[in-house]
Amino acid sequence: YTNGPRLLAPYRGTRNRMHKWIGNTPQNFKELFNFRYSSTQNVIKRSFGILKKR
Questions:
Q1: How far apart are CA 9 and CA 29, in angstroms?
Q2: Over the stretch 17-37, which tens digit does the pLDDT of each residue have?
Q3: CA distances (Å), 11 to each of 4, 5, 6, 7, 45, in order?
Q4: What number is the average pLDDT over the span 27-52?
Q5: Are residues 34 and 9 in contact, defined by beta-carbon separation less than 8 angstroms?
Q6: Measured in whole angstroms, how far is the alpha carbon of residue 30 from the centre of its chain?
Q7: 3-state SS of the chain?
Q8: Whole-angstrom Cα distance, residue 38 to residue 28?
Q9: Average pLDDT value for the chain
Q10: What percentage of the chain exceeds 90 in pLDDT?
Q11: N or C end of the chain: which has fewer CB within 10 A?
């Protein structure tokens, strides 16, 4: 995906460190952004899953 007026895409080629489970912390802004992007995406997907089950 590319950035647009209503979409912020994650950075390509940047690792998404799961620091909560592995013990690694993001090393720079791009890794932190990708981690938060991924976390937010998971919450949204779970929310839609819950709504679809109703």
A1: 14
A2: 665 666 677 788 988 888 888
A3: 14, 16, 16, 13, 20
A4: 91
A5: no
A6: 11
A7: CCCECCECCCCCCCCCCCHHHHCCCCCCHHHHHHHHHHHHHHHHHHHHHHHHHC
A8: 16
A9: 83
A10: 24
A11: C
The first and second tokens of residue 4, run together, are 């647009």
Which residue, chain included where needed, has tokens 């949204």? 44
* Burial of residue 35 (number of CB atoms within 10 Å: 0-12, 13-18, 19+): buried
Take residue 15 and report the two structure tokens written for it: 């690792």
Q: What is the residue type of 22?
A: I
Contact 39, 22 (CB under 8 A): no
pLDDT at 16: 66
